[in-house]
Each structure stands twice: as C-alpha cells, then as structure tokens.
Specification:
Number of domains of chain A: 1
CATH class of chain A: Alpha Beta
Strand order of the largest sheet of chain A: 2-1-5-6
Number of strands of chain A: 11
Oligomer: homodimer
CATH architecture of chain A: 3-Layer(aba) Sandwich
Number of helices of chain A: 9
Distance between the termini of chain A: 36 Å
Chain lengths: ~240, ~240
C-alpha cells in the first residue's frame, strides 16, 4: 500500500511531521507492506532562485509580526523537533526557492534514494549552518552523500527543465486532492492527513487505510475464461462459453 | 480519476485494446475527468536489443505451431484491428526488444506527449513497413513526430540508464497488481480490466469506478481546527479546543 507525502524542504512542519509519521510507521505491524513516496509542493514557488533571506526578517515582513513573535515560533518548532529527536537551529536559518531540490528528489526517486535525499535536505536546511540556498555545490555534496551519482546530479542542476514537469505535476495533483498546505499525507489515495499530526493520528490513518485496502476488482464479461491479451507465453484468444 | 494502462508496443492486443477503451471513453459522460497514464510492461524483457526476428517464424518456433496457424492468428488480429479502424500489416512484421521505447514513453510522459508517442509507436510497429526495432534513427523520427525535442530523445537513447528504473518500477507494480499479461487497465487503483475487452466492458468499468470514486477522507483528531502545517501564507499552529 502506498503513502504519498507532499512536502517542501522549506517547511519546518514537514520535517517534524515526517518524523511523527515514521514513529507511527515503525510500530505499524504491516510496515513492510507500505511504500512511501515523496511528492513536491513549493511553499514559495514565485521566489527567484537568488532571492535568499534570513527566516526571521522574512517572517516579520511577510506577516507583520514582531521579531520576538517570529523568534517564538522558531523556538516552538525547535522544541517540537527536539521532541522527535531532531536537531533544529532556531537562529540564522535561511529561506529560499526549493525548486532545484524538488527536481533532485525526483531523480533520487528513480534511483531508489528519495527518502535518503529528503532527509539529508531537511537536516541540512534545519540543523546545519551552511545554507542550502543559492549554492549548487552544496546541493551536489548533499545529493552525493545521499547516494546519488555526482554526474547525474550536476546534469539535473545544469538543465532547469529536468524533472520540472514532474514537480509541476505533483503540485497540480496536490491541488486536485485538496491540499493547500504541507505536509499532506495521502494513504492509498483514500485517506488524507493534513499537517504534522501526532503519531497516534498517523497510526489511526494507517490502520484505517490498511483495513480498507483491497485487491483490484476485475471487471469482465460473464462466462469468459481469460482475455484477448499477450503475456510472456504469447498472445491468447479467450475461450467464450 | 486516473486510468493506468500497462502495455507493450510489441503487443497487438494492446494496440486493439487501447482503441476499444478509447471508444468507451469517448462516450463516457465524465471523460474530461479521466486522466490516462501509460505504464510499461515488456513481453520479452530478456531479448537482446539486436535480436530482431520476423513475427511468424518467431511464433512458430516459440509455440511449436505451424506457419499457417501463426498466420491465422495474425489475420484474426488484422480483422480485430480493422474493426476498430486501425491499420494492421498481417505480413512481415518484426518482433524485438521494446525497452528503449518504454524509456522514451516515460520522457514523453514528463513532456505531456505520452499518448501521442504510444499511438505513434503502435502505428509504426503494426501498420508501417519500416521496422521500429534495432534502428535508433527510426525511434528519433517517430518521437519527434509525436512532439518530443530531438536532443532530449537522443540523450535518452544514448544513456541506457535514463528512465530504466521507472520502466522496472512499472513492471514491478504490474506484478504487485496481479497483471501477468497486457493490456491491463487499472481504474482508480480499484477496478481492473485484463485484456482487449469489448468497449462495453470498459464502459462498465468506467461507470463502476466513477461511481465509487470519492474524495479523500481526512483523518484528524476530534475538535481540531487546522493543523501544524505550512502553506503559502506561512506556518500555522492549530488552535485546539
């Protein structure tokens, strides 16, 4: 059964929510039957690639709140992250465009390294000093540390169209599913969890989705053996009664 | 609602089945709400790229049937194709490895040209004289005629790893869904249609899947307004009652 997680690297609740979901998944009895796929959602898609801002002034300006209020929000996030065993720098974090990271996450998906890469990006953005924004060499270093081939990473970064359509398609799909914020979890395309809910909510969602998950119902004419189909053993014409 | 079609270019029933499905889709009242995605399934994945064989001798050898029996099968396929308005060469068609075509179909998916490309490949393989096998220039020509950029097509053909994992992932997923032959249609991940069924069966499957299609059920704690999530308007902390 598939769980899709729409998120953004620049979204602190996505960082925290992923850990809460994983805590639920760890104790879920059917966890080996769960495939997790990360999908793209940009919080700030209109921001230029070279428009990088420290988080606190960005927040005070964007929402007309005081620096102390913005800082309090960061402290709260830091505490929530710590409760999940995650490091979180509550000072001097940057905000920027995440499009290139999303494109790399789709390369990583093809290479079976998507979860490693998103975790690496989260950690770098929320816990490490060196900014992930406006620094392609930093992205190369992080992607290689997550197991990607350097030449492939450089190729994707050098070609702004690589995986761009897939990122956009993910974003369209999020809108179609009714997500207007992230993290947004979709279980078996049937159940949704919006936000960094407590682990118990994820456990409940996993249980409900698993219980209602069923194999495909085949639609076919009555009294038919087989179908006009081709398989490894050739192309068959069915016998109809 | 999404309809996924697993198929192979070398599969004549896929060519015919696609047309039957499309006939059903044309008259389906909610057709504008249906997204069709083509997925990869190789009938003969072990065949070397340069191992190209005329279809009739391949069939007689593989299944121990006579040339007349093999030819009768082709005539039947030709008649079924004609009934759908499709051209079909019942003589001198080749059989070969389709991996590169599947890789190109995934490029085409990213570029919004997948349906055009699969139809172009089918037509070339089943109705046109020049073989689609063992001839990269032929694939370039076909892909460009379906609206892809020549340099991108050449890049994918030159790099055997491009989209290779996506093809394999599609094939694994087909096995997980219980498909052992193609065409295999999956509607909303809930209903399946195996083989080139009559258009009425597709109509019935579309109706059933559409009727049971429902928006995501949100799982959330009682008495919660909102969630710990980030959206275009910032990162919120929910108000709990």
């Amino acid at each position: 059964m598939r769980v899709e997680i729409w998120s953004d690297i620049a979204c602190p609740w996505c960082y925290v929510g992923k850990a809460r979901f994983e805590r639920a998944l760890e104790t879920f009895p059917h966890r080996d039957g769960i495939e997790v796929v990360h999908r793209s959602f940009e919080l700030d898609p209109g921001r230029a690639k070279d428009d990088i801002q420290p988080v606190i002034p960005m927040l005070t300006k964007k929402y007309g709140i005081s620096e102390a209020q913005a800082q309090a929000g960061e402290e709260n996030l830091g505490a929530q992250a710590a409760a999940e065993g995650l490091d979180y720098r509550t000072h001097d974090r940057d905000h920027g465009n995440t499009f290139d990271m999303h494109r790399l996450l789709h390369l990583a998906k093809e290479r079976g390294r998507q979860d490693e890469l998103i975790q690496t990006f989260y950690r770098a953005n929320f816990a490490e000093e060196r900014s992930v924004f406006g620094d392609d060499e930093r992205l190369v270093e992080l992607a290689v540390s997550a197991g990607l081939a350097e030449d492939e990473v450089r190729e994707v970064l050098a070609d702004p169209s690589a995986y761009a359509d897939v990122v956009r398609a993910d974003e369209r799909e999020a809108a179609e599913l009714g997500a207007n914020g992230v993290p947004f979890f979709v279980l078996d395309r049937k159940y949704g969890v919006s936000g960094a809910q407590p682990a118990e909510v994820f456990t409940q969602a996993l249980e409900q989705a698993w219980a209602s998950h069923s194999p495909l119902k085949l639609v076919q004419p009555a009294g038919q053996d087989g179908a006009e189909a081709c398989g490894p053993d050739g192309c068959a014409v069915p016998h109809r009664h």
